[in-house]
Amino acid sequence: MENIDITVLRQLLAWRIENKKALLVTVVRTWGSSPRPIGSIMAMCEDSRVTGSVSGGCIEDDLIRQNTQAQALADQAPRFVRYGISADEAHRFGLPCGGTLELLLEYNPDAQKLKELIDQLGQGHLVSRQVELATGQVTLIPTDKPAELSLGPAHLINTFGPEYRMLIIGAGQMSEYLATMALFNGFSVTVCDPRDEYRSSWSVPGVTIDHGSPDDMVTKLKPDSRTCIVALTHDPKLDDLALLEALQTEAFYVGAIGSRRNNESRKQRMIEHFDHTEQSLAKLRGPIGIYIGSKTPSEIAVSVMAEILAVKNGVQLSKQMSVGQAKTELNI
After folding, report:
1. Per the omega criterion (within 30 degrees of 0), is the bond before 162 cis?
2. β-pairing, 100-107 with 22-31?
3. Which residue from 214, 257, 300, 323 has the least number of CB within 10 angstroms?
4. DSSP-based three-state secondary structure for 88
């Protein structure tokens, strides 16, 4: 499953190629609580089809009512609309706690520019999409850093990134659960396992399977700040070298399954044999996951996916939420 932004842009492009009138909607400002963050996008076709979202559904319904007639979607400059200004409106449109959000509506975006954007994202590039508010003209600007949406007097700039990627070392049962959840959260997933007996029973569609050495796969993948690497084999011969390679990259999450004792042994091996220090291993997570009392492979995978998403979204998790710390405090 693709990153939701890319999915929206692909569908919008398909409509425009078919010469259908369509609308690109972007959340540009919010006040109070909001169902979707700034920068979220949705697209709407003249036949009322919608992809993506800017709220829980009520605002989408209102946009459909106002913009599905041909004359309503005629070519025009972008315009702003605001929802939830009054308490009554907030209640009507399902905005919590009197929240308010402002949207930018772009009418019939240029298909060629959409294709260029999607192509660049598909090649793994970060791209800032600059919209001239007076005319709707779009300029694509390559960039090397993610950025928050920027709204000025003359331009809107929304930065789009390639898919988040997950590399899983090991093709076991827990890997299947974790890969499935990662796909539904918009990650591109690769599973690396040189063991035929594990790969042969893999059953999750949409995942790239690699039979090479895990450390070589890390090098081949060239992890960036939108990549996470999770070792799930419990086999030091497979996990350790891959983790050592991963620690030298910009991957936002590097971790391994295992008990507190096994993870401590892994760190000691890396310190004694690979010249690492406690400081250089600070990025290495283990035991991975947040503590939810999980025992089955599926529950453990939920725990791991929750931690990965928290790190991805910049949430500072307390030590008490980590599996190792919680089990220590509970004397488990």
Report:
1. no
2. antiparallel
3. 300
4. helix
**Domain extent for 42:** 4-160
- The secondary element (H helix, E strand) that includes residue 263 is helix 260-274
- Asked if residue 182 and residue 145 are part of one domain, the reply reads no
Q: Both 144 and 215 in a single domain?
A: no
How many structural domains does the chain have? 2
Question: Does residue 176 carry a pLDDT above 80?
Answer: yes
One domain for residues 148 and 249? no
Same domain for 123 and 231?
Answer: no
Q: Which two tokens stand for residue 152?
A: 């000025």
Q: For residue 180, report the phi and psi dihedrals to the nearest 5 degrees.
A: -60, -45
- DSSP code string of 285-319: E-S-SB-S---SHHHHHHHHHHHHHHHHTT----G
- Please report the pLDDT score of residue 98 as a whole number: 56
- Name the pairing type of β-strands 41-45 and 50-52: antiparallel
